[in-house]
Amino acid sequence: MSRDARWKALLELLVERGRLEVEEAAAELAVSAATIRRDLDQLAEQQMLVRTRGGAVVHGVSYELPLRYKTARQASEKQRIAKAVADLVEPGETVGLTGGTTTTEVARALAVRGDLTTGTPALTVVTNALNIANELAVRPQFKIVVTGGVARPSSYELIGPLADGVLGQITLDVAVLGVVAFDVVHGAAAHDEGEAAVNRLLCERAGRVVVAADSSKLGGRAFARICAAELVDVLVTDTAATPETVRRFEEAGIRVLTV
């Protein structure tokens, strides 16, 4: 197992459990305790976790795993969700994409759609996510609009009043939201209040709002609210969502697509 793979596995275990012991991690990853200690020390230097005697705990109360370590989580579900979301977009529309692993997959799904290979433009994409803009900028048939703002290293998203200035001047056909949590009562939410504020503006500027979220995000809460559930038109999730969960969203007037 490579170092990067170990680090990703360690961080995912830590997010899941909140606390991790060296011997426990060594057994699960089938490596030596010395290797795990070294990994934990290096991750602590990057402020990805807090070292304790014999292990580590998550860094801070509102812990967020950085985007570069989240790409493999529910990967197949996110790709299926992304294709379904991309299929909801019509050629020539203006699409807003927030940051996140699922919305990054949506951008990739849009990029390979056969009916979006030509046009002037075939699609206009407005995003505050630097990684999404970077991936789509090489597509000459896409018009890419990037909001201003200050970059968050963990998510590659631009936040702050500079982003507000751009979004206040445009109109979107559809906004696609990546969320940390989505609940009928508490709405869509993110870890960071700056991200939530920009995502909220994207919703307000859009004719329709689509939440792209795997089933693990449904029914939970997170620190910063993006929007109320009633502002969402479509939820695209995976087939692991329970019938009860789906029913609650549908009763709230949200169209639910499970893939």
Textual characterization of the structure:
There is one protein chain. The protein has 259 residues and is of the alpha/beta class. Helices cover 36% and strands 25% of the residues. It has a 7-stranded parallel sheet with strand order 6-5-4-9-12-14-15, with helices on both faces. It has a 3-stranded antiparallel sheet with strand order 1-3-2. Strand 7 (150-152) and strand 8 (157-159) form a beta hairpin. The longest helix is centred in the N-terminal third of the chain and has 15 residues, at 3-17. The two termini are 32 Å apart. The mean pLDDT is 91.
Concise summary:
The chain is of the alpha/beta class and 259 residues long. Helix content is 36%, strand content 25%. The strands form 4 sheets. A 7-stranded parallel sheet has the order 6-5-4-9-12-14-15, sandwiched between helices. A 3-stranded antiparallel sheet has the order 1-3-2. Strands 10-11-13 form a 3-stranded antiparallel sheet.
What topology emerges from the helices and strands here?
Blueprint: H1 3-17, E1 19-21, H2 22-29, H3 33-45, E2 49-52, E3 55-58, H4 75-86, E4 94-97, H5 101-111, E5 123-127, H6 130-136, E6 142-146, E7 150-152, E8 157-159, H7 161-167, E9 172-178, E10 181-183, E11 187-190, H8 193-204, E12 206-212, E13 224-227, E14 234-237, H9 243-251, E15 255-258
Parallel strand pairs: 4-5, 4-9, 5-6, 9-12, 12-14, 14-15
Antiparallel strand pairs: 1-3, 2-3, 7-8, 10-11, 11-13
Helix pairs in contact: 2-3, 4-5, 5-6
